[in-house]
Amino acid sequence: MTSRQEPRPRTTTRDPEDLARRLTAWLDTRLPGAKAAGVTVPASNGMSSETLLFDIEHPEPPLGACALRLAADPAAYTVFPVYDMVRQYRTMRVVGEHSDLPVPKVLWLEEDPGPLGAPFFVMERVEGRVPPDVMPYTYEGNWLHAASDEERERLEAASVGLLARLHDQVPLAEAQFLALPGEGDALRRHVTAQRAYYDWVVDGVARSPLIEAAFDRLEETWPREPGPPVLNWGDARIGNVVYDGFAPAAVLDWEMAALAPREVDLGWTVYLHRFFQDLTEAFGQPGLPDFLRRDRVEARYAELTGHTPRDMDFYTLYAALRQAIVMLRVAYRQVHFGEVVVPADPDTLILHHGSLRAMVQGSYWD
After folding, report:
1. Is the overall model pTM greater than 0.90, yes or no?
2. DSSP SS3 for 291
3. What is d(CA 266, CA 269) in angstroms, rounded to the nearest whole number?
4. Which tens digit of pLDDT belongs to each residue from 48-94?
């Protein structure tokens, strides 16, 4: 793990004031006389779909605070090849209708890219606080790091409970539109889709020997019985949850949702915390080593669902591999915008190349 301070990549190429004007004009077509007030683009916006926050001013009905999810600008060297807003909208509706997860109510879907330059949907905005990614919540100086052990344990228990309820409550028949294309079972299709994503990322640029070694390692350790698929959140991490105190108030960011074994979500939850924890330790801070520990996450999930997680070395490696492909794309995006140059070893563009290599070698969890 490197401790170099890299420049923070740009997250948007759009003009917030222009977006605000166009949003107000669009809103009038859906709710005549309505105005979009206080339109802001959060500083925490990621490099994938973008979020706009605004209030609707209208006498009837009083919709109030809203959030808008806008597909990434296709001209901005996007992180993912496709941004299917219809799929995200349908996923949130299905989860909201068939589970007790706190999913924000979706209000409108706009498939026409004309109004804002890309498709988008609008949902109700839920107030609360989110564990930060920059700087990560494992660093000192944020509300989760400053919380007591008991408070963090409550948040951890409730967050694992989200996965348990999602996997158990949403009927598979209602989520068939999330089945990935291809041959084989749901796990094989999921990994095949990640290979296709990796090939897209490295098209015309240097490939990553480390990522390719990780794919080879997956094949060597493939689970004998992956188990039946469930609706996977996809980006299952606490940074995508709005908390009221230490209880989940809204579950966000469903663009990576798919049908897959339960362990795909669990591996992502476990590894994405380790990603931040490893980064924090590399910068000389202790982080939160007892929070979201793998053994505790697995045990709590088993207690809640009756399903004991299996093959978690495989699934945490798979999570680290998936994160590596995203990180490589983000790095090449920085290269595209002139923020960094390609090093002699392209694997070093992957922020967690050290931990991924240890997983490939089988020594990470020792």
Report:
1. yes
2. coil
3. 5
4. 678 999 998 877 666 789 999 999 887 789 999 999 999 999 999 99
149 in active site: no
Please give the Cα distance from 253 to 130 (Å, whole number).
Answer: 13
Query: Which residue of the set 235, 253, 278, 311 is catalytic?
Result: 235
What residues form DSSP beta bridges with 52? 68
**Which DSSP symbol is given to 346?**
G
69: β partners: 51, 121
Cβ atoms of residues 69 and 85 within 8 Å: yes
Q: What is the DSSP letter of 212?
A: H
| Residue-by-residue DSSP string for 138-176 | TSSSSHHHHS-HHHHHHHHHHHHHHHHHHHHHS-GGGGG
Q: What's the one-letter identity of residue 114?
A: G
Both structure tokens of 123:
């949902």
pLDDT tens for 215-242 read 999 999 999 999 999 999 999 999 999 9
Give the C-alpha distances (Å, rounded to integers) separating 226 from 194, 214, 223.
17, 18, 6
